[in-house]
């Protein structure tokens, strides 16, 4: 659990690449062509397993979506072709029953790469949670632009799901209060348990609600690193971690988050109890980053450092002007700050001048507070941002003389590093592939050995060493990212241990086994051959 899902994901992709790839080109401009192509390719895709199939979309192409895409028993990988041109443009189209479908339902694991996903329909109707993850699956979203969903950019709908977001541009999500207070990046809707949420090098703005919405569920691991967030109204707060066991919030820019301020007493329909329920804050106040203060663990691994948190003066003036309606939001909850080994490094404050920021929503907020009996905010306020020729004219790079430019870990800029390509290249050189989520301070005496024999049929032995006594978990996953076996979940003494794995009930193929003990996580692949 915790960071392990990222390691498993990378190993799965490497394993698939090692046995070759099938490229299936999907032509643009035809209604529902993506769903039709995937359906027609079913037999060929199944026969080709474990080879990875990639459905490749054309640059500058438009792909109208009608039918839901449900990958119930295969890894679904949709990406843009290489080269110049606009990202492939995917947009929902109302079907014959005038209904809007939830277009992507990942019921097995998958990856979306290099796409623009417009979550309004061709008729301009806001859709609700177009991209969903079910059944304990994992979804990787890389280099995508996702915009205009009235609910959430990405929704985790079942227990044990995970999501990994990298190099994305997510904006203009939400809708007025007359339709409800949504407009999030990640919406956690699992009944009890989410595995991992990782967001890196992503820029987001114009969200009407939280960055992550996690009401009461347990989350094993949240990583929020090198992201830039600008001008979000924060209907229910900021990044709501909920009952998180392990969390890393580092090297981010939170700029004009919770622009509405921390309370809505003047607006009809907003009550203090609702604010408290939504954000689990302290002293009935909204914060940029919250955890559930009712969730107590003997030890929680929480790392928060090098975050630039800033509000422009005109927003601060609004909170004073409408002091019967709102007050200044907090930065990180006191409970969260108490969990940090060095809270002085959690955040700093520095105004920045961005090269091309999104438009200010100051006038909209001032107007909304000026009509205290209104329950309907201006329609689609968060959709006011307009793209130019399919590209987003936003650039959140800032001057190299700012302290933020060298304030991040390793002297790198805080915020989304995609705005500094040379610095990002240098940063990537410091990331050790599949192990980049594993702390460097892990004791070298921890080890997970390659199984023997390998390949095997039907049983093999897995050896591991522990430098100290503690609880360990040894699990096995298939190439869809689904857990197929738990070999160990118990306290072990320090020393060398060996576990037998009987795979007589499994089919031939590549499997990933993972070891977790405290802060130590490792993973290796093995091959079952009948």
Any idea what the shape is?
Answer: globular
Largest beta sheet: strand ordering: 1-2-5-8-11-14-17-20-23-26
Q: Tell me the helix content.
A: 10-25%
Helix segment tally: 8
| Spatial separation of the terminal alpha carbons | 29 Å
SSE layout and pairings?
Layout: H1 4-18, E1 21-26, H2 33-40, H3 42-48, E2 52-57, E3 62-65, E4 69-70, E5 76-80, E6 89-92, E7 104-106, E8 110-113, E9 116-121, E10 131-133, E11 138-142, E12 145-147, E13 152-156, E14 162-166, E15 169-173, E16 184-188, E17 193-200, E18 203-207, E19 212-213, E20 218-225, E21 228-230, E22 239-240, E23 243-250, E24 253-255, H4 272-279, E25 287-290, E26 301-305, E27 307-310, H5 313-321, E28 330-332, H6 334-338, E29 347-348, H7 362-369, H8 421-428, E30 447-448, E31 459-466, E32 470-477, E33 483-492, E34 495-502, E35 509-517, E36 520-528
Parallel strand pairs: 1-2, 2-5, 3-6, 4-7, 5-8, 6-9, 7-10, 8-11, 9-12, 10-13, 11-14, 12-15, 13-16, 14-17, 15-18, 16-19, 17-20, 18-21, 20-23, 21-24, 22-25, 23-26, 24-27, 25-28, 27-29
Antiparallel strand pairs: 30-31, 31-34, 32-33, 32-35, 35-36
């Amino acid at each position: 659990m915790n960071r392990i899902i990222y390691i498993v994901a990378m190993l799965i992709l490497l394993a698939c690449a090692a046995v070759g790839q099938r490229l299936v080109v999907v032509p643009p401009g035809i209604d529902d062509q993506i769903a039709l192509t995937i359906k027609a390719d079913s037999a060929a895709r199944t026969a080709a397993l474990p080879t990875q199939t990639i459905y490749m979309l054309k640059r500058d192409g438009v792909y109208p979506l009608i039918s839901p895409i449900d990958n119930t028993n295969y890894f679904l990988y949709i990406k843009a072709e290489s080269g110049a041109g606009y990202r492939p443009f995917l947009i929902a189209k109302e079907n014959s029953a005038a209904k809007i479908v939830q277009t992507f339902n990942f019921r097995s694991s998958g990856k979306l790469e290099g796409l623009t996903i417009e979550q309004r329909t061709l008729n301009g109707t806001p859709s609700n949670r177009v991209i969903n993850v079910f059944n304990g699956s994992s979804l990787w979203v890389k280099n995508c632009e996702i915009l205009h969903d009235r609910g959430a950019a990405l929704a985790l709908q079942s227990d044990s799901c995970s999501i990994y977001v990298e190099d994305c541009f997510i904006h203009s999500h939400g809708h007025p209060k007359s339709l409800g207070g949504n407009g999030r990046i990640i919406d956690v809707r699992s009944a009890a348990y989410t595995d991992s949420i990782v967001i890196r090098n992503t820029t987001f703005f114009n969200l009407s609600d939280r960055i992550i919405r996690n009401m009461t569920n347990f989350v094993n691991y949240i990583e929020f690193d090198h992201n830039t967030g600008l001008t979000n109204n924060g209907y229910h707060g900021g990044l709501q971690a909920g009952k998180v066991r392990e969390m890393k919030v580092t090297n981010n820019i939170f700029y004009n988050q919770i622009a509405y301020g921390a309370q809505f007493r003047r607006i009809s329909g907003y009550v203090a109890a609702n604010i408290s329920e939504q954000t689990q804050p302290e002293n009935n106040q909204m914060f940029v980053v919250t955890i559930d203060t009712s969730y107590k663990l003997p030890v929680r691994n929480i790392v928060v450092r090098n975050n630039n948190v800033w509000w422009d003066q005109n927003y601060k003036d609004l909170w004073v002007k409408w002091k019967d309606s709102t007050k200044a939001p907090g930065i990180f909850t006191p409970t969260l700050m108490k969990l940090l080994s060095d809270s002085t490094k959690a955040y700093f404050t520095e105004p920045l001048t961005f090269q091309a920021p999104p438009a200010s929503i100051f006038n909209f907020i001032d107007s909304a507070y000026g009509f205290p009996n209104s329950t309907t905010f201006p329609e689609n306020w968060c959709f006011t941002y307009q793209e130019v020729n399919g590209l987003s004219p936003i650039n959140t790079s800032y001057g190299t003389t700012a302290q933020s430019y060298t304030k991040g870990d390793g002297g790198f800029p805080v915020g989304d590093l995609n705005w500094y390509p040379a610095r990002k290249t240098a940063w990537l050189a410091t990331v050790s592939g599949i192990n980049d989520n594993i702390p460097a301070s892990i004791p070298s005496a921890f080890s997970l050995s390659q199984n023997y024999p390998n390949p095997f049929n039907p049983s093999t032995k897995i050896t591991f060493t522990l430098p100290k006594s503690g609880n360990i978990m040894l699990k096995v996953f298939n190439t869809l990212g689904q857990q197929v076996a738990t070999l160990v979940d118990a306290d072990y003494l320090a020393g060398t241990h060996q576990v037998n794995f009987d795979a007589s009930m499994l089919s031939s193929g590549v499997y990933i086994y993972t070891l977790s003990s405290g802060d130590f996580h490792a993973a290796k692949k093995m091959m079952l051959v009948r």
